[in-house]
Write a structure and sequence with these properties.
The complex is a heterodimer. In chain A, 55% of the residues lie in helices and 0% in strands. Chain A is mainly alpha-helical. Chain A has a domain at 29-105. Chain A is globular and about 45 Å long. The mean pLDDT of chain A is 91. By secondary structure, chain B is an alpha/beta fold. Chain B has 2 domains: 29-61, no CATH class; 64-206, Nitrile hydratase alpha /Thiocyanate hydrolase gamma (Nitrile Hydratase, Chain A), CATH 3.90.330. Chain B is 40% helix and 11% strand. In chain B, helix 3 packs across helix 4 (78-86). In chain B, 39% of the residues are buried. The model of chain B is unreliable at 1-20 (pLDDT under 50). Classes of the chains: A mainly alpha, B alpha/beta. Chains A and B meet through helix 1, helix 2, helix 4 and helix 5 of A and helix 1, helix 2 and helix 7 of B.
């Protein structure tokens, strides 16, 4: 069976050749990933392993930088840099803070993704 | 083919067409996860905020113009062209560009053969030379189809290759990134290296387009 990222040769529709510039958060996610990589904590191979381990569902459902972020989270846990409990607690804390400051405007379906 | 997509600009999933704003509201779980990871990694002294900012700035400063300088040099300097095809990491280093993570391989378009680059598994790309890959390069449609029906995909980019031109598709990996050396357009004999560099497009260095003749 093909792993989820192994899509070379599969039938697909036309290529959307339009340009999309990165959003602020995507640039942040890219910079964070690069900074962690520069510390030797996430090589290209480790990044690929982490993204592939997210499974078929994530590959279909998540956007590119959502996959990167999910992979970074997994890699930090697997490397023993962070624990899942720490991450969950910090996510809850950041969510509350953004809510309190009026900066949170969750899109439909997003609230269900929190642990 | 792409005029009727993405009617919603406020869904926070990375397709917003407006330029990024630091005061954008936070819309998604993964945005919050990204913020949380950054704060934790800073608290634990794994990275600093300044380092993350420097990487963002460095990324913004790398554009396809860097690659265009390499191509123009190869067009005007046959010895450089030979070095580029022999050892691209070393050759781009001569122009001050550093490939930090991977081996760079330059593939030359000729009258007989055209080259196009993909990363079927994800998004490997010569980022250190060309900047971040375009959205379509990371798309399922491009990755899946370019290896099976490359001529049809090139047509979607407006590129018609004659049937007697061989087409080579190069699949990138974490270890090897490819740079297409496009053919120098006709009508450019009088041009300076800088003028030539201005003709070279990102898409021609990925190989989905060829450069137009200069009138």
């Amino acid at each position: 069976m093909r792993s989820p990222q192994d899509i070379g040769g599969l039938p697909e529709g036309p290529v959307d050749t339009s340009e999309h510039s990165l959003t602020f958060w995507e640039k942040q996610a890219d910079g964070l990933r690069a900074a962690v990589g520069a510390k030797g904590l996430m090589s290209s191979h480790e990044s690929r392993r982490a993204i592939e381990s997210l499974g078929h569902d994530a590959m279909e459902r998540l956007t590119y930088y959502e996959r990167w972020t999910a992979a970074l989270s997994r890699q930090m846990v697997d490397r023993g840099v962070l624990t899942q409990d720490e991450i969950d607690a910090k996510v809850a804390q950041v969510r509350q803070r953004l809510h309190d400051s009026g900066e949170l405007e969750l899109a439909p379906g997003e609230a269900e993704k929190f642990a | 083919m792409s005029g009727d997509h993405h009617h919603h600009h406020d869904h926070g999933h990375g397709h917003a067409h407006s330029p990024p704003q630091p005061d954008d509201k936070v819309h998604s779980y993964y945005q919050i996860l990204s913020i949380a990871l950054k704060e934790l990694l800073i608290e634990k002294n794994v990275v600093t905020a300044a380092e993350v900012r420097r990487f963002i700035e460095a990324r913004d400063s790398i554009t396809p113009a860097n690659g265009a300088r390499v191509i123009a040099r190869a067009w005007v300097d046959p010895a450089f062209r030979a070095r580029l095809l022999e050892d691209a990491n070393k050759a781009v280093g001569e122009l001050g560009f550093e490939m930090t993570t991977a081996r760079l391989v330059a593939v030359e378009n000729t009258q007989e053969a055209h080259n196009v680059v993909v990363c079927t598994l994800c998004s490997c790309y010569p980022r250190d030379l060309l900047g971040l890959p375009p959205a379509w390069y990371k798309s399922r449609a491009y990755r899946a189809r370019i290896v099976r029906e490359p001529r049809a995909v090139l047509q979607e980019f407006g590129t018609e290759l004659s049937d007697d031109v061989a087409l080579h598709v190069h699949d990138s990996t974490a270890d090897i990134r490819f740079l297409v050396l496009p053919r120098r357009p006709a009508g450019t004999q009088h041009m300076s290296e800088a003028e030539l560099a201005a003709l070279v497009t990102r898409d021609s260095m990925i190989g989905v387009t060829v450069l137009d003749q200069v009138a």
